[in-house]
Design brief:
single chain; mainly beta; Collagenase (Catalytic Domain); Immunoglobulin-like; Elongation Factor Tu (Ef-tu), domain 3; 3 domains; seven-stranded antiparallel β-sheet; 12% helix; binds zinc ion
Length: 506
C-alpha cells in the first residue's frame, strides 16, 4: 500500500544532479547527447574517426560501473566486484562509467576511451567517449568519468567487455599500465540474470463512481516510464485494457473497499486467461481530483505480497490513476509487491523487509535515471517505503525484482497434479480478523501462496472435508484467502495458522 497522510506541500530535496555535460555544447543543446562524440580540450568536436593512437600515460582505470538505474560495479581496483547487491539485468540499457586515478605527473588533457562489448553469441560493439580529465573521478560528478550510453541488447547473457584509454600525441612521459582493463583480452560481465525479453503489463482503467481514468497517449507513456526507469527490464510491453466498469465505490481510507477492488482486478486477470508472465495493474480515479479524494489522507494503492515465485494469482495490483510522482511511485511499489517485495523502512511503512540493508530506507548507492540522464543521490529514499517523492530504486530492490523476473521468465510452466482444484472463492480478511466472503473465481493455474489448512463443517457440526486454502497478505494489512469452493451444505470453515484456529461462518 501507499498511504498519504495529508496534502502538505512535498519537501522536495534537491537530489538530482544534471548529467552528461561533457559534450552538450557540441550538440546544439541536445538534452542527452550521449558520449560518443570526440571533443577536444577546447570543447570543440575534433575528430569522429578512429581514436587517438597513443595509450594514455600517468592515468589508471580504477573502477568501471554500469548504471542500469542503480549502480552495478563491473570492476574495482583491478578486481571483479564482490559487494554488488544486484546482478546485471541482461540486455538492459544504461550508462557505463569509467573511473580514473591520475598519477603524480598527470596534466589535464583529453582522454579518448574505447569500450568494447561483445554480447553473448554476438559480434563485438565499440563505443567511444572523450573527456578532459583534470583530476580523480567522483561518483557525484558525471563529468569526472568517461561515460557511455550502452544500448539495449549489448550486455546480454555471456557478454564480455574491455576498456582502453588513449590520448592525442604530445603527452608527458610515464607508465601506461593503467590505460586498459583488462590488461589483455576481455573481462566477463559480473553476475547477470535474464529478466525475459519484455515486462508484459496490462493497464486496466477501472471506472469507479462513473469516472474513467485518463488513458491519453501522454498518460500511458508516463505510466510506462514510471516502471521502465526503476525496474531491471529491457522493455515494458504495456497494453491498455478496455475500461472496466467497477460496480462499487472505493472510499479513500477504506482498506476493505480497496481490498474488494483488488480482488476484482485479480479475478479479471484469471477470467481473461492472461499468460503467466503478464501482470495486471488497475488504475482508478474515484473522485474529481486527487486533492478532492485525498484531502483527509488516502490509500494510494494495494497489492498482494506474492511470496511464492511460482504463484500466478497474485500477479496484479491496483492504485490511484492520477498521473503524478505519487501515482508513479505507487505503480512501482504495488507491482513490486506482486513480485514478492516487502516495504522498505521509511515513514512508518508496515511489514518492512527485515533484509533491507539501509536503515533509513534510502537507496544506498548512486542511481541513474535512463529516461532523463540524471544521477540520483544515494540519500534519496527507496520507492518501497512510505516516504514522499522523489524516490528511486536501491540496488537491493533492483536485485530482488530482477531475481523474481528471471524466475518468472525461466519457469513459465509449473505442473500440477491432475485432480487439484482450480475453483475458489475469495475471503477478505481485515486487519482486525473480520472475514467477508467475496467472489468465486476459476484459476488458470492453482494458487501457490502461503498454504492454510481448512476444515469444512455442515450444520450438524460434522466434518465434510479438509482442504488447503492459500493466503495472500496485503501490503495494507489483512489479506485475501483463496478457499476451494465450499459445497452448499457447508455452514462454517475453520482455518488454521500460526496464531491458532479461526472460524469462517457461511
Ligand atoms: Zn506497499
Amino acid at each position: 500500500m501507499r498511504f498519504r497522510t495529508c496534502l502538505s506541500p512535498l519537501a522536495l530535496v534537491v537530489v538530482l544532479a544534471a548529467g552528461c555535460g561533457a559534450s552538450s555544447g557540441a550538440n546544439g543543446g541536445d538534452p542527452d547527447p550521449g558520449a560518443d562524440v570526440l571533443i577536444g580540450p577546447d570543447g570543440a568536436v575534433v575528430d569522429t574517426g578512429p581514436p587517438a593512437p597513443d595509450l594514455v600515460k600517468n592515468l589508471s582505470i580504477n573502477e568501471v560501473s554500469f548504471f542500469q538505474g542503480t549502480k552495478i560495479v563491473l570492476m574495482k581496483d583491478g578486481a571483479a566486484p564482490t559487494a554488488n547487491k544486484t546482478a546485471l539485468a541482461a540486455g538492459r540499457a544504461g550508462r557505463l562509467r569509467v573511473y580514473v586515478t591520475p598519477g603524480a605527473a598527470w596534466v589535464s588533457r583529453a582522454v579518448v576511451a574505447t569500450l568494447t562489448v561483445t554480447p553473448g553469441g554476438g559480434a563485438a560493439q565499440s563505443f567511444v567517449a572523450t573527456q578532459t580529465v583534470a583530476g580523480p573521478s567522483d561518483d557525484a560528478d558525471i563529468d569526472s568519468t568517461l561515460n557511455f550510453d550502452v544500448p539495449t541488447a549489448s550486455f546480454t547473457m555471456g557478454a564480455t567487455w574491455s576498456v582502453v584509454l588513449r590520448t592525442p600525441a604530445g603527452q608527458p612521459e610515464g607508465p601506461t599500465d593503467g590505460a586498459s582493463y583488462p590488461a589483455d583480452g576481455t573481462a566477463d560481465a559480473p553476475a547477470i540474470k535474464d529478466p525475459g525479453a519484455k515486462f508484459n503489463l496490462v493497464l486496466v482503467p477501472m471506472i469507479v463512481s462513473g469516472i474513467t481514468p485518463d488513458t491519453s497517449d501522454g498518460a500511458i507513456d508516463a505510466w510506462k516510464n514510471a516502471v521502465y526507469r526503476l525496474y531491471p527490464v529491457t522493455e515494458v510491453n504495456l497494453t491498455v485494457h478496455a475500461p472496466y466498469k467497477y460496480g462499487s465505490s472505493v472510499a479513500a481510507t477504506d482498506s476493505g473497499g480497496w481490498s474488494r477492488a483488488l480482488q476484482t482486478l485479480l479475478n479479471l486477470r484469471q477470467s481473461e486467461g492472461a499468460a503467466d508472465d503478464v501482470f495486471y495493474y488497475g488504475i482508478l480515479t474515484p473522485s474529481s481530483s486527487f486533492d478532492a479524494y485525498c484531502s483527509r489522507g488516502c490509500i494510494g494503492g494495494i497489492a498482494p505480497l506474492s511470496n511464492n515465485p511460482s504463484d500466478t494469482y497474485g500477479r496484479g495490483a491496483i492504485g490511484l490513476g492520477w498521473t503524478s510522482d505519487f501515482g508513479f511511485g505507487t505503480i512501482a511499489q504495488e507491482l513490486a509487491h506482486s513480485l514478492g517485495r516487502s516495504h522498505a523502512p521509511c515513514n512508518g511503512a508496515p511489514q518492512t523487509d527485515p533484509g533491507f540493508p539501509y536503515k533509513d530506507g534510502s537507496i544506498g548507492v548512486w542511481g541513474w535515471n535512463l529516461t532523463t540522464s540524471a544521477l540520483v543521490n544515494p540519500r534519496v529514499k527507496d520507492f518501497m517505503g512510505y516516504c514522499d517523492p522523489p524516490t528511486w530504486t536501491s540496488d537491493y530492490t533492483f536485485g530482488g525484482i530482477l531475481t523474481r523476473l528471471a524466475y518468472v521468465a525461466a519457469h513459465a510452466n509449473v505442473h500440477y497434479p491432475k485432480d487439484v482444484t482450480h475453483d475458489f472463492q475469495v475471503v477478505s480478511i481485515a486487519e482486525n480478523g473480520a472475514m467477508t466472503w467475496g467472489d468465486k473465481v476459476t484459476l488458470a493455474t492453482p494458487p501457490l501462496n502461503e498454504p492454510r489448512p481448512l476444515t469444512y463443517y455442515d450444520a450438524g457440526g460434522h466434518v465434510l472435508r479438509t482442504e488447503i486454502g492459500y493466503y495472500y497478505s496485503l501490503d495494507a494489512g489483512g489479506g485475501l484467502l483463496l478457499v476451494p469452493t465450499p459445497e452448499a451444505a457447508t455452514r462454517r470453515l475453520v482455518m488454521r495458522d500460526v496464531r491458532g484456529e479461526h472460524m469462517i461462518p457461511r
